[in-house]
């Protein structure tokens, strides 16, 4: 009698017919497949970036824009201005201590905080995470921003300050 | 006929375990490289660096194909032992 019982499969095994060993085996396979799926998603995401830069190339600013009179911004000061295109983009105009003019987009390249020119440091500062940019070139000198600030070219004509898209860098 | 699949099925579970671990590690490596590529694409291509966008996309796709190809070598699940 007893021997017969031992040979029989218990009821629960019929309801759930998966060996423990088998179960772990399958889950590792699934993990590998999931990793591959993830890998495909990453490749796809990268493709989306390519498509985006083909479909919506960054538009350059068109024409010259009048900003202010030369006398309005003393040396070492900055002026905030906006240019309306498809979207309104805030910029800063800086009159450097050596008399040169610079114009940059005001959005920090890290997380888009507004940057300001610090006369005492002679640096452009992003107050959010202490990112610093060179006020001559817009290059990141310190902190988390990954890219330089986009720059405009400043043109002075008859005491008036204009900006236009930067003629392409060499 | 003896091929990879055939010998794999005959192999001792310890060997399939090693293979499984190897494949998993390789996949993790591939995915990490892809994450790095995507990260640099996001950092550079958001301005106007089209070549980086394209380059990382091609690289990432190649890695994905490699990952998919690796799946061919996954050991098959064990068949439940057939009881007489
Ligand atoms: S947003 Fe400018 S440093 Fe983070």
UniProtKB/TrEMBL annotation, chain A:
Its cofactor is [2Fe-2S] cluster. GO terms for molecular function: 2 iron, 2 sulfur cluster binding; metal ion binding. Pfam families: Rieske. The keyword Metal-binding applies. Keywords: 2Fe-2S, Disulfide bond, Iron, Iron-sulfur, Metal-binding. Transmembrane segments: none annotated. GO terms for cellular component: membrane. PANTHER family: CYTOCHROME B-C1 COMPLEX SUBUNIT RIESKE, MITOCHONDRIAL (PTHR10134). This is Rieske (2Fe-2S) protein. It comes from Arthrospiribacter ruber. The lineage of its organism: Bacteria, Pseudomonadati, Bacteroidota, Cytophagia, Cytophagales.
Automatic annotation (TrEMBL), chain B:
The keyword Transmembrane helix applies. Keywords: Membrane, Transmembrane, Transmembrane helix. This is Uncharacterized protein. The chain crosses the membrane at residues 20-39, 51-74. The keyword Membrane applies. It holds the Pfam family DUF6755. InterPro entries: DUF6755 (IPR046643).
